[in-house]
């Protein structure tokens, strides 16, 4: 069965690139425009991985990660975050919130896929 | 493929820039507003991230520094000043310029760019603009000499490893993908069952790995978990790793003692082995690891990206093949040789499958665009203080990517018009006796050899008289001109026409309905508009399915042959002459249902032959049905639709022509338009 990816980003173009890349790769893709929006998908349906931006309106990526880690259904799924900051501080913060790994923007599709394959197969 | 999204990025970025500008204006009046600063920061962040992704490197660099300034403001390290705001305003202008131009090449531009950059950098307290720092390559980077080395990797994760969604087994897999290895798991820390916390990790691992990859590749495997484990990677030998009895013994004793293998001990054992091994076997091992690597790569490719030109070529070749196959079938039938007939049938079957396959490859679903449309309607409604529900039907329809590309802008414009001009404000709607919430229906469906896209709103509709008055004012028509309702509606598509007196912000993007029509015409599509005052407007796009090959039914009408797309055929009847003679209004009663019909011999002015039996092909279009009278149904035909020449393009009911196996030509009937042709005297409604 195709794996389901939830992508969360407030930038439409990023969402589409990610969406396009993943769908091409045969993933089922759910799309949230921010943390708040993403929560609606976390209703018990199977989701195999979440890829989220950190800076978003309404609910940012860190809070989303924390929320997901509190949910019984999803607390163990891999969560990758997108970041332009390759500074350690931001990464640490996200990792402490419970993120599994990260993808540094800008990325090419191959990089995105390889990051996913690190944590989901 | 990034290019495909570039235009979208620019559009989105312009929205971001607008938002940025707006927030800046507000910030000028309220310099302490956290919310505004956050908004500005976010806009810049998006510009920076996206800019780098879509190849706007200057933009990305530029906004990176701006972002830093606002990051510091956010963290109370910098103050908002009037100077800063003015500078940011000029930066916004530069951003717009960069979005328009892409990366700068002109000397002059670069100068300005750099001077502005300097001004911005001067604002930053320290020069610590931590530009996207690339990880400095590790000091013990291995020389590029690809000789295989043996490493002892000790991986001791913390207990909470699993809670972050990490699967340590994947890491082991990744290591084994780098080369030959042996992993040893230590499980002595696993507590008794009743004390076991299921999502704790109690295991740790040692891996002996021989690989020709640099050590950084090994480190890379652990990149996500390096803070959650103790990791050591030690080089313990050269060549390929072989599990020899002494090493086995070492592993066994380590396991029994529950203590890690010491690299020094392993080193000694390996060196002994090494001496025995001659060069030949290490050579062999090297090719072995390489092979494994390529295997892994092959395994990973589950889809490939192909230049669309190649696909076009494939489709062309398939078209040719189908025509040739038709010739073969004709030949086989003429010969009557059963062997050849079987072969011809097989070829036909295969070429059909090949055809379907080739077309499937070239199609992409509309879905991705729909997301944009939905967003547009939502945002625009909010902006204009309207309530709008956007209903999508048929989003899974697939279209040729070229068509989709050409379709987006016109559709965006149409939707903008719907929200801006069509849907009324809630108050107006209630006053008109409608529900306060307006509806926009987006419907896509296949129809024969076409894809139809209908955008319908239940707004105020278009007032024919208003159009006429405006057109006269604009000098598009003369006051005394007599125009049908349809002709008046059509004026909307004339260039330089706008039904609103004041050009609003929304539709003031320089695109009018005339451009919509032009763009749709470029992909050989049509736009029609239909509107009822007070009830709403429907804009219908009729697009060619690029399927230049269709499944058709070959018909004989008079002395000529015609093709009707099978997709629009519902049933075929054989009628007795009497059934038609008794009917009037060109309606025939079959199974207690009245079915209107047209005689194709009349439509195409073919000679009528006297036959006792006549066949009727029942076609369906939306919920309408129509019978087509023909002399004979000849059979299925894979139809390669060739466009008609320039002079025949406007023909009402013919959409193309196809070469048959015997070299003769069949005309392809446009089933949608034949309804219009027959319309008027009959509603043609089912039931």
From TrEMBL, chain A:
Domain Response regulatory: start-end pairs: 4-120
Keywords recorded for this protein, A-Z: Phosphoprotein
SMART domains reported for this sequence: REC
Organism superkingdom: Bacteria
Residues with PTM 4-aspartylphosphate: 53
UniProt xrefs under SUPFAM superfamilies: CheY-like
GO biological process: phosphorelay signal transduction system
Keyword Aminoacyl-tRNA synthetase assigned: no
Statement: the UniProt record of this protein carries the keyword Secreted: no
Family annotation (Pfam families): Response_reg
PANTHER family named among the record's database cross-references: CHEMOTAXIS TWO-COMPONENT RESPONSE REGULATOR (PTHR44591:SF25), STRESS RESPONSE REGULATOR PROTEIN 1 (PTHR44591)
Protein name: Two-component system, chemotaxis family, response regulator CheY
Annotated organism of origin: Thermophagus xiamenensis
Lineage of the organism: Bacteria, Pseudomonadati, Bacteroidota, Bacteroidia, Marinilabiliales
UniProtKB/TrEMBL annotation, chain B:
Record GO biological process: chemotaxis
GO terms of molecular function: ATP binding; phosphorelay sensor kinase activity
Matching SMART domains: CheW (SM00260), H-kinase_dim (SM01231), HATPase_c (SM00387), HPT (SM00073)
Region (Disordered): 277-297
Catalytic activity, EC: 2.7.13.3
Catalysed reactions listed for this entry: ATP + protein L-histidine = ADP + protein N-phospho-L-histidine
One GO cellular component term noted in the UniProt record for this chain: cytoplasm
Pfam families per the UniProt record, alphabetical: CheW, H-kinase_dim, HATPase_c, Hpt
InterPro entries attached to this UniProt entry: Bact_Chemotaxis_CheA, CheA-like_dim, CheA-like_homodim_sf, CheW-like_dom_sf, CheW-lke_dom, HATPase_C_sf, HATPase_dom, His_kinase_dom
Bias (Polar residues) ranges: 282-293
Residues found modified as Phosphohistidine: 45
Coiled-coil intervals: 10-37
Domain CheW-like: 549-680
First-level EC class: transferase
Keywords: ATP-binding, Chemotaxis, Coiled coil, Kinase, Nucleotide-binding, Phosphoprotein, Transferase, Two-component regulatory system
Residues of the HPt domain: 1-102
Keyword Nucleotidyltransferase: no
Record domain Histidine kinase: where: 316-547
Function of the protein: Involved in the transmission of sensory signals from the chemoreceptors to the flagellar motors. CheA is autophosphorylated; it can transfer its phosphate group to either CheB or CheY.
Database matches in PANTHER family: CHEMOTAXIS PROTEIN CHEA (PTHR43395:SF10), SENSOR HISTIDINE KINASE CHEA (PTHR43395)
Protein name in UniProt: Chemotaxis protein CheA
Organism this protein belongs to: Thermophagus xiamenensis
